[in-house]
Amino acid sequence: MLCHDHAILAGLASGKELALLPAMATRHGLITGATGTGKTITLQTLAEGFSELGVPVFLADVKGDLAGLSQKGEPKGKIASRIQELQLPERGYANTGFPVCFWDVFADLGLPLRATISDMGPLLLSRLLRLNSVQSALLQSAFRIADDNGLLLLDLKDLKSLLTHLSQHEALYRPKYGNLPKQSIGAIQRGLLELEAQGAEDFFGEPALNISDLLLTDAWGHGVINILEAQKLINNSPKIYACLLLWLLSKLFEELPECGDLAKPKLVFFFDEAHLLFDHAEPALLEKIEQVVRLIRSRGVGIFFISQTPADIPDSVLGQLQNRVQHALRAFTPKERKAVKCAAEAFRPNPALDISRVIEELGVGCALVSFLDEKGVPRIVEEAAIIPPQSHTGPIESGQMAQIIQHSPLQATYAKALDRYSAYEMLAEKMQVPGPKATKKDEDPLEGILATFAKKAGQQVTNQIARSIGRKLARGILGTLFGGKA
Description:
Blueprint: E1 3-4, E2 7-13, E3 16-20, E4 29-32, H1 39-52, E5 57-61, H2 77-85, E6 100-104, E7 111-112, H3 117-129, H4 133-148, H5 156-168, H6 170-177, H7 182-197, H8 200-203, E8 225-229, H9 231-236, H10 238-255, E9 267-271, H11 275-278, H12 283-295, E10 301-307, H13 315-318, E11 323-326, H14 334-345, H15 355-361, E12 366-370, E13 382-386, H16 398-406, H17 411-414, H18 423-430, H19 447-457, H20 459-482
Parallel strand pairs: 4-10, 4-11, 5-8, 5-9, 6-7, 6-8, 9-10
Antiparallel strand pairs: 1-2, 2-3, 2-13, 11-12, 12-13
Helix pairs in contact: 3-4, 3-10, 3-20, 4-7, 5-7, 5-18, 10-12, 14-15, 19-20
């Protein structure tokens, strides 16, 4: 147990303990450093500490070596030497595994993680599809039409059916919703085909993730560490990866109640390869990301971004990441020297350290560390040896992972995909019956559809419309964050 006085021991500097105060975790954090310098070890150590304190964790495994959190560590080589060198057993260090839940968009190495098209919303979808402003506005209109007419958008085939319908009946919708250019509809449809090729069909659908299922503890009060298997996702679909994590943060903000400052967070969210979120992001989206990072603290959620240098993070977001761990950076080019300078300037100075020089000379497993004190003031940066994880470092056997997945209490909830009656089925049936004439019903062209299906679907349609209204309200909140309309 390495949590002393309700603080997470992260490193030692000349015998002095450098600990992260859980009450300050919602002030967010940053873990940076070049590849191979120990960022993953730091992430794993902090995740263990939060779990021991009863705080659930969400993190993405982008290299396939975090599954070891589930197994008891068996230190060898340099890690075993570090444990003895730092006299960690005397400080409560004991090898153990932690409760984990594996998630996977492709359902290969974890429970399926899904979202509905409706919950994702038009703005994030626009970014995924790389739409221009005209195409994005059209997608907003398509969502509005679906909401106004009780059409559930659950998976890709629902959205594709709606777009095809709008292309064929544009004149009916023009008076109320404006022009719906076929060229723009075609561009969106081509983008959806590209998303399908990247595996998005597995992601969009039901049962969608219930945020409360990320906030679990085990029978001993340890926070469950939710591990998103992200190797395949980040290699094949980096935009889906970035938008998925941003969507999760948005859902947390929408659905968790405001709670003010807590003794420990409700959840800590580690965002690895954070530069993917900000690469080529338009100014409006950057502004909304900044708002999410700032406001989600009031929901009791702490965010730690992991990237190579602080320069990967926009200044407006970087200023909110107040707990910092900087691993080594190498500077051989002017750009790299600038990155080192940027990293050095991110810390509260220590008169005894030449921070820029130290950053270049840090060994593997060592880092510059500055956490907030109990008053929320950054401590003076110190050079530290990072505490090795108590769990296994690296991948685990496929049989071990399969057993954990099979025995997950959430297996029965998420394992089997659902395909409810939604926009695809409604519009497919519309093609088989006479539709309303474009006369008095121009203002509500799908009224005839709903009337046609009322007898066939009965109360099911009524329930779906109610659910649609609920999603519309939820997207209204998301729209407040992301500048769109519900």
